[in-house]
Structure prediction request, 142 residues.
Amino acid sequence: MENHLYICEYCSKKYLPRRRHKQRFCSNSCRVNAHNRKRKLLLLSKNKGLNKPSDHQTKNGITWGGIGNAAIANVATEVGKSIFIKEENKPATKGDIQNLANKIGERYILIKNMDARADGAPAYFDTTLKEIVHLKFLPTWK
Ligand SMILES: [Zn+2]
Prediction:
């Protein structure tokens, strides 16, 4: 007796398939939902354009809102290939710039046991120059 369970590609539930090898979803509603989701994702990636990331997009340019975690792995294999290949060629996203800004922010470390300069500029250790610097204002492009 064959009792190997399939895993629904939409809800990730285990189920006993009625048609082996052909069935990918546990139910008709999952099949329809998966179809709609795929269509919606394709529309989203076409309308928004992968080169125009918004606040709602991840660094991979996909809007995950409303998509269950269980589904993400499936989506990644469905539409992921084309998106991940484009990753290198995309302009820097907000996330990339934020990462860079964070790194710049870490360049200067406030030295607590050193007095500020006469004009009030606190002492920082510049991790890039490996020197103590006095800065009135830290770069604030965060
Ligand atoms: Zn299902």
